Amino acid sequence: MADPCVVGLDVGGSQSRAVLATAGGRTLGTGRAGGGNPTVLGAEAAVANIVAALKGALGEVPGERVEACVVGLAGVSTLMADPKAPHVLERAWADAGLVCRVRIVSDVTVSFAAGTPSPDGALLVSGTGAVAARMHDRLPARFRDGYGWLLGDEGSGFWIGRQAARAAIAAADGRRPMAALATAVLARLVDQDSVYREPAHQDPADQDSESIMTPDLPAGTTPDRSAGPDPRSRANATHPANPTDPINPTDPTDATTHATPTAAHPSARVRPAATGTLPLAASIGEGFTLRGRRRAAELVRAVAAQPAALASLAPLVMSAYELGDPAAVRIVAEAAEALVESLAGVAPAPGEPVVLGGSVLASRSPVFRAVAAAVGRRWPDSPVGLAADGAAGAAWLAARQLLGGERAAAGHAVFIGENHEFAEFS
C-alpha cells in the first residue's frame, strides 16, 4: 500500500512554494509560482498562483493521494475576510484534485515550524519585511513590528536597501566618501546612459549597456504609485525565494515572507537581479564625471519611480560589508540591533527556542551572524533554529495531523532535511 502523502505550501507576496512528501518526510515533488498574498493581488489572482505551485508539486501524483494539506499564507486575514474566498478556495482545491481538508494558517506559523518542532518559543523574520512573534502552541500570540515598508519593518531587506540608497546620496553630494557601497548602488540604479562622461574615460563595454531606468520624468508629472500601498510586493515576482531570498525575497506576511528581492516590476526598467557582486569601484568611478548633485538626483528619481528597487540593494550591502565598507558596516550593525530589539519584545521563556527566518537571515548574511551572536548573549538558554524552508515546515504540520505529536516530532528533522540547522550560539 502506498504511503500517505501530505502537501505543505509557503505563500508570500513574491513567491509561492509547495512541497509534496510522504508522511514520513520523503520529498516527492516541489512546485513554485508567483506570489499569493491576497492583500496585494486580490483573492482570485492569489489563489491562481497557489494552485499553480500546488500542481507543480503534485506532478503526476493524483490529488486523491494527499491526505493532509497545510498552507502558510501571508495576508491570510485578508483572504478570510473576502466573502468570495470560500467559493474560490473550494474551486481551487478541486481543480488541483485535492479531496482532503486544507488547513490555512499564517506564514508565521509555517516559518516557526520550519525551525523547530517545539510548540512554543519566539520567531524573528527578516526578508523583504521584518516581524517578530511570540509563538504559543505553534500560533502567533504576540507581535513586534511588521508594520510595512513605510513606517516599520526595521532591519528588513527593504530597510537595508533604503539605508544603502541614503548612503549613496550622501557620497554623491560629497558628505561622505565615495566607497564601495555607494559606487555599487549608483551603478545599480542610476541610468548610465544619462550620465556625462569624458570620452577618454569611456569604457567600450558600456557602449551597448542596458538602460536601467528612465532617468527623467516629464515636467509636471509625478511617479506612478497606483499599483498599491506596498511597493515591495512587485519586487522579485519571478525570482526563486531565496538566496536564499539573496537575499532573495522571501519574504515575507511579505513582512514574514522568506523572501529576497531581486527582480523589479518590468515597467520600472530596473536591472532584474542583484547578485551581490560589486563592480570595480575604480573603473566605474572614473566613468562618472557628472557633478554629485545630479548623480544624487538621478538616484532619487530611480527610487521614486520604482520604490521596490530599494529591496534589491540589500545584497550589495552584504558584499560591501565583507570589503569593510564603513557605510555597509554601520547599516548591518543597525539592522541587527533593530531586529534584536523587536525580538526582545516577544522574548522566549528560558529554554524555549528562537527561530530565525526570512531571506536576510536564512541566507547566513552578516546580519544573520550579528543577530545570532546577540541572541546567544541575551538568551543563552535558548537554542536557535534556522528556518530556511517554510513549505517544508508546512508539510511537517500536515504530517503531524496524521501521525500525532510524538511521531511527528521524531520525524521533524527528516522533513526539514539539510535546510534545518539547530545550534547554540555564544
UniProtKB/TrEMBL annotation:
<protein>
    <submittedName>
        <fullName>ATPase BadF/BadG/BcrA/BcrD type</fullName>
    </submittedName>
</protein>
<dbReference type="InterPro" id="IPR052519">
    <property type="entry name" value="Euk-type_GlcNAc_Kinase"/>
</dbReference>
<feature type="domain" description="ATPase BadF/BadG/BcrA/BcrD type">
    <location>
        <begin position="7"/>
        <end position="398"/>
    </location>
</feature>
<dbReference type="InterPro" id="IPR043129">
    <property type="entry name" value="ATPase_NBD"/>
</dbReference>
<dbReference type="Pfam" id="PF01869">
    <property type="entry name" value="BcrAD_BadFG"/>
</dbReference>
<feature type="compositionally biased region" description="Low complexity">
    <location>
        <begin position="240"/>
        <end position="266"/>
    </location>
</feature>
<feature type="region of interest" description="Disordered">
    <location>
        <begin position="198"/>
        <end position="271"/>
    </location>
</feature>
<dbReference type="InterPro" id="IPR002731">
    <property type="entry name" value="ATPase_BadF"/>
</dbReference>
